[in-house]
2-polyprenyl-3-methyl-5-hydroxy-6-metoxy-1,4-benzoquinol methylase
Amino acid sequence: MKLFLKTKDFSVSKEDFELHLDEDLDMLVTNPQPEDIAAYYESEDYISHTDSKKSFTDKLYQAVKQKNLRNKIQLIENQHNNPNTLLDIGAGTGDFLVMAQSKGYDVAGVEPNDGARQLALQKGVALEPKLDGFSGTKFQTITLWHVLEHLPNLQDQISDITSLLEEDGTLIIAVPNFKSFDAKHYGSYWAGYDVPRHLWHFSKTSVSKLFDRHGMEVASIRPMWFDAFYVSMLSEKYKGNKWYLPNAFFVGLWSNIKAVSSKEHSSLIYILKRRK
């Protein structure tokens, strides 16, 4: 693999990393990949493991999260006639599963971070620390919302995940898209890279090829419109721009406008089914 970009961990360690291009899969790979990756999540700045509302960014994230949660539930309901079994991998503090449970779903979740699991438990959702706790169980819907890019041993993990899916089930995966306009605009400052927590960086081609090896095909792709604004806001902050809000708004807006024709949104939701 050849060097694609040099970047750094802007949010926690400030360490330097490289992104290498896997040309066959059309995917970027973070290098090096730390052995003790958990240490890079131990920060109050890692908002998906907290319910923080301290800063303006935190409050904005939490407010938009509520709308996104409703959109996610609607997306799942569009795939099946009746509520059924749902597994959320990388469940964070459990808000998505809490809402799904209120809609009649039989829910389960995986979250390796102990602090996030404790917050979820306070909301009435008990999460497993590892996926192997569900060995032999089948689910109608499995979701990974910005999680696949965090998983080590990617091929093994995909094999384990797909083995838990009902034959007619639906796998829903949301990941950043390094081919988006905002990714190209910000380059090494693009917050969607989020090294080293993001080990892999996907394109449409890479998602299709990776899951094809496991008997899965992409049935449809949906955009995550807000991500262009949020990722641009973080990217502007990484650049040290005190006018990060207006700049982020215009970059995010232009990224979404460009994506109307290119279909290369800042983040994409892939809906996958078993290949017939």
Residues 2-176+183-225+267-274 form a domain with the Rossmann fold fold (CATH 3.40.50.150).
